[in-house]
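Operator note (shift B, R.M.): manual run for Endonuclease/exonuclease/phosphatase domain-containing protein requested after the automated queue skipped it. Running by hand, logging everything below so the morning shift can see what happened. Input copied straight from the record, untouched. If output looks odd, do not overwrite the archive copy; leave it for review.
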Amino acid sequence: MFINNKYCNPSQVTVRNRLCTKDIEILAVNLRPYYLPREINQVCIFIVYIAPSADTEEAGKIIHDLVAQTEAKSPDAAKFILGDFNLCSLNELLPTYHQYVSCPTRDEACLDLCYGNIEKAYYAKALPGLGKSDHNMIRLIPSYQPLIRREKVQTREVKCWSADSTAALRGCLDSTDWDVIMDTSDINDAATVVTGYIQFCEDLCIPKK
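Run finished. Output pasted below as returned.
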């Protein structure tokens, strides 16, 4: 796995798991890039190689267990499982994950896949193979829109508290004849009248924007 230093500081890269069996080779890495959308706290990447002769059921179970452990520890992380899957599919094992690679990766076959827990995070584009590799390179182009860009614009009104406005409010309350306002024997009526009057004075003395 190669990581561009402009994307993530090497000190923020942590290897969480390494596993090599007759059915699967997998490397699990956590990243904290310089920038992430506010709703994502880190990126978890699983790099996978499954040989054509592997027991795909066993390989899929190993991936599922590792992903489940990561989900429990980091539910808000972005998680991606990518590599050469050959005949293995995670569609049934990880039904909430999305597969982004839609173009052939070796001749007419789609063997190199990328699953993620974010819908429409990427779209794929095939590039020529690297060196003498018989697999195409796949460029995953981001299409994810951060939550802040998907939310509708909201207009809010706030009060501008300052020393002058606070002094004006204090003067307004000091000059109030509270006996007139609280001229009632019902404690609930008194609380309602006092609260309403204080709110009226606040609206009168504290400017808004």
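Quick read of the result: The chain has two domains: 10-150, 163-205. The chain has a mean pLDDT of 91.
Leaving this for review. - R.M.
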